[in-house]
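I had to read the description of the data format several times before I understood it. Each protein is reduced to its one-letter sequence and a matching series of backbone shape codes. The format is easy to grasp once an entry is in front of the reader. For illustration, here is how one protein appears when written out as sequence plus structure tokens:
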Amino acid sequence: MASTRTSRFTPWLPLLVIGASLGYAVTVVTRLPWWSLFVMAAAWIGVGLKLRWGVPRNARYRRIWPWSLVPLSLLGIYVYLADSFGNVDLGAVFFHLQAGMTDHGGGGKVVIAAVYVITMLAVLASVTWMARHDQRWRLAERFFALLILAINPLLYGLGQRSAAIVTDDGEWLDRRYVAPPTEEQTHRPNLLLMYLESLERTYSSDVFGDAYADLKALGERGRVFEGIRQMDNTGWTMAGMIASQCGVPLMPAGLLHDTQFEPLQQVVPGVDCLGDILAGQGYRLSYLGGASSQFAGKGLFYRGHQFQTVKGKEDWLPELDDPEYVNSWGVFDDTLYAEVEREIRRYRQEDDGPWAVVNLSLAGHAPHGFPSQTCIDRQGPFDGQDILYSVECSAWQARDLIERLEAEGLLENTLVVLMSDHLTMRVSVWDQLTALDRDNTLIMLGNGIEPERIRRNATMLDVFPTLLEALGLPLEEHRAGLGASLTGDHSTLAETHGLDVLNERLREETALQHRLWEGLAPQRREAASPVEQVITPDR
């Protein structure tokens, strides 16, 4: 004990560790500039030295374990998630744990996570030292342990999800679900659906210069949708895809999953999605992604919803001319788009009915993006940090692919759809983005579509019926899933109830969760009386 008390590094070192970590946490969860952490750390150390924290007069040492160790660890997890992704979505955490994270591209995240673990161990050791050597800390830290638990958004979210189990009405969303159509159509245009990773429409603001210019140019000759906001459980890639292709938020299977300690074998098997509908219409379906199709259940989702061809990173790597031309997630977009072009040519040559090709790019992936060599040759050197460089690259490559396909007549009788899979997570222009009214990209071209701009208060759920109607499928009152077509005259749920109400209802919902995971969940409880379906009234 004596050697520890007389160490020249105490109490300076514990105060520095706690002060710097506190300052960093505050800058992560607020919009304060990064340099303010030094101000907070200096203020913390100054107060600590003034009050003689850790070396009080009449010090009484006790070998205790502070109450705040567990609350601090949980708060550290939240800060890490907020620092990595911007907005912490518990649904994403739960789903990825269930669906699997094989072949993720987060090699850099592993290093960052290790740094966080080391830092948290240092914080816990510092708090323990202070509590053992200062009786004032022993008394105060018990109160702060409760305060830290109370302010942790992670625990607040867990509490809300737990409360859903005993909610009085867990069927609010399920009552509003409308099954998509199954009638066969005679006019069946092809479909090229391009998900542009994290390329939200917010980047079209003048604040970001010309980064979004190529998508603006495409939008000038097509139908541009504005106001597609992000509700809970739609804010990561698989959730955005499922919302836009199935009309439902991705509610993780959770305790409904019968084999809790085994990976999922199906993804939302209880609802019909775009693939099921188009397969019923005789379409040939392909999903092509730059990242692994094994990550987060992408392959399970597309194969389970009747896509005949599902390819990702693991399929492209053996065919690369240069095996080193890859990034931490998979292949670059110029490689992916060459495969998309090859797939469309194959379908055109076969001439055996309509086709649909869905692809997911990587260039805009947070935090810095993955611009291809094609873009570097065009735009100059990449500094490895500027996300706007990657946004420009992603937008230009998408435009270039479409214009090349059009020039060769490969997109005749084809609906081309470009959309972001979700709003971006934390990037180099995070403060500018979060200061704006953010919304997702949705642009439709071809198939007799006249240039127009449609602004609605909508979510990604509404993309599903909008897409179906653009393909010529008639919908009952312009609705499918939980969405309303943005070209129809029925109100969206966001217009009728507001986004806050939708998110609140989602946290209380249990019946829709059972619907999504039908077959993986225990038998649904039979209602005492039939439940009447609710249709949102006209605007």
